[in-house]
Amino acid sequence: MKSIAFSGLTLGLLAVTSSALEPLTIKGSKFFHADGTQYFMKGIAYQRSPTDPLVDKSQCQTDATLMKELGANAIRVYHVDSAKNHDDCMKIFEDIGVYAFIDLDDFPTYIEQDGPPHWNESQLEAYTKVLDNFAGYSNLGGVFVGNEIITKSNGSFAAPYIKAAVRDIKAYMEEKKYTRKIPTGYSAADIAELRPNLQNYLACGDDSAVNVDFFGLNAYEWCGEATDYHVSGYDKLNENATDYPVPIFFSETGCNVPTPRTFKDQFAIFGPEMQDVWSGAIIYEWIQEDNNYGLVDYGRADPKTAIGGDTWNRGGKPTPLPDFSALKTVWASVDPTGVSLNKYTSTKGPISCPASTAGIWNVDPSSPLPTLGQTAVFAEVDAAVGPTTVASSQTTYSVDPTSTSKPNAAGRNGVAVSGGFAAAVIAVAAML
Q1: Which of these is catalytic: 121, 175, 239, 252?
Q2: Pick from 159, 229, 233, 356: CA 20 to 30 A from residue 80's CA?
Q3: For residue 88, is pLDDT > 90?
Q4: Is 348 a member of any domain?
Q5: Range of the domain at 33
Q6: Is there a catalytic annotation at residue 148?
Q7: Is residue 38 a contact partner of residue 340, using CB atoms and an 8 Å limit?
């Protein structure tokens, strides 16, 4: 791979905190504590503040007290401010045994599916600033390079850009000589047509420098008392993940139709059906909002002072809701033991990259990943002559006229994808 020049001080490596928690390690498809016991994630999606919930010491202490009562050992935070100091909140969560899994992107920098897909220096710089900010915390469990970037069945053309981001984040850690390699992964929308191609593509082959270290799935299939392991489709999810070479977990779950939630899926995830394959789950979400997924309620805000139409308080005294009590009871009754590190031998070798299948998985596994600064270009394609020629910094795709969205086809420059050859045609700028 071409060397990437990085600059800037690795702030996170200097922000060393006292270690109530040792960093997690990964071997094969499992997370492990420093003492060799297997780590199973009982996590909460914690985006109390839309911009950064980890900067208010008092609020973190209040919420952490309840999370300890709940039995949580992980939080997932979707947006943070890399310019802020997070020592207090990270230490508070560390002291109660909670690891933080942090998304590196924010709304301006996430990898777009339809924008068209691109991965450039500005995005990398923003991601690495977050990484530097958090790298020194021993309870940083891992980072996500994206969340639900692909949201439709014919959106697989964006997958190489996700993998390119993983590659460059790992290269950055290598070049900056991080004292430990922060586990780097992706959180996927649950799209039936893409199973298990996306999860396999992001971890296929034997090059750990470009593969995810873990894979998260946002799944809301287990709904209500009438659902079970088979009805929900969890049996199929488990089958698809059985030979996965890195840890896989539910990065969001907790269907709320009907309410109140019973969280019965946790018995399967942490039970004999799934505990040997899955590393746990993150429940969506901590704060009560209009979507009615909250475990706690901070009350209503004054409509006169509410920002952006958000009439829910984003902090203050949290009142546990019925879902909080239900989850607390369920988590208290599930205690997977797993396997100890010194007795675990991973038999899962490299998995094959999924073959390109028109209309299902539109990525050619033999094609190189996008380079830093590359943007996908949708260009006119003729069945007889193939895709039009574009500059080397671009990737060419074709559009299937039966599709209602931007599409998929083959190009030799950059990332090759396959799909229906047809005249198509949207041209977009190659460099952002």
Answers
A1: 252
A2: 159
A3: yes
A4: no
A5: 11-343
A6: yes
A7: yes
What are 347's two structure tokens?
Answer: 């038999």
Rounded Cα gap, residues 302 and 49, in angstroms: 17
DSSP per residue over 175-193, as a string?
A: HTT-SSPPPEEEEEE--GG
Token pair 């503040």 in the structure block, residue:
49
Residue 237 and residue 214: Cα distance in Å, rounded? 16
> Is 4 a member of any domain?
no
Would you say residue 417 has pLDDT above 70? no
Tell me: do 363 and 314 sit in the same domain. no
pLDDT digits (tens, 9 = 90+) for 253-304: 999 999 999 999 999 999 999 999 999 999 999 999 999 999 999 999 877 6
- 3-class state of residue 406 by DSSP: coil
Structural tokens at position 92: 């508070």
Tell me the residue type at 301.
Answer: A
Options 148, 193, 221, 289, the catalytic residue: 148
Q: Using the 3D structure, point to which of 343, 375, 396 is the last residue of a domain.
A: 343
Structure tokens at 202: 């992001």
Q: Tell me the one-letter amino acid at 124.
A: L
Q: Is 289 a catalytic residue?
A: no
Lowest mean pLDDT of 44-53, 109-118, 383-392, name the range: 383-392
